[in-house]
Amino acid sequence: MTEVTIDHTHPLYVGPSDTPGSIVIPVKLTGSENYSLWSRSMGIALLGKKKLWLVTGKRKKDAYKDDLLEQWETCNAIVLSWIMNNELWHEYDVLVPFASSGCPKSKDQVEQLHQQRVMQFLSGLNDSYDQARRQILMKTTAPTLDQTYAMIVQDESQQTFRVNVVTDKTDPIAMQVGRGQ
């Protein structure tokens, strides 16, 4: 089977930050009381990542044959993991509750929990984000999960921009060589 090249506009494209360990929204599903907010947030995040069609069923698995079927499976698995990861943190909070008395020790526990989630998010990123990961970890003030995610999205945008700029420009020296100079 030959490998199919998929560009960033294709619905089955998986970007560098599209990893199974990623948390795509900060809203935790706690049940029917916040399902509407969670659902809307998840829908917006999936739309932004061009993967909402997997949840709505707009493009069915049957539409992708042979070489693209495996890529469809990959995209589906990633979206499922995003949804499950978001719920799993809520389940963890239920299983391992922390005191919310407002005392300094309680605040420290909450801060530690948030930092563990930032570390989990960063460890789920692929190798193309090593530099961004190092910069985030070197910060003197630890960023929140939302801030971390925003930094990674910004880095991904810059990576995509750099690739587009490099491929759109012709090297003037190469042109001179082509003329025999």
Automatic annotation (TrEMBL):
Superkingdom of this protein's organism: Eukaryota
Name this polypeptide is given: Uncharacterized protein LOC142178217
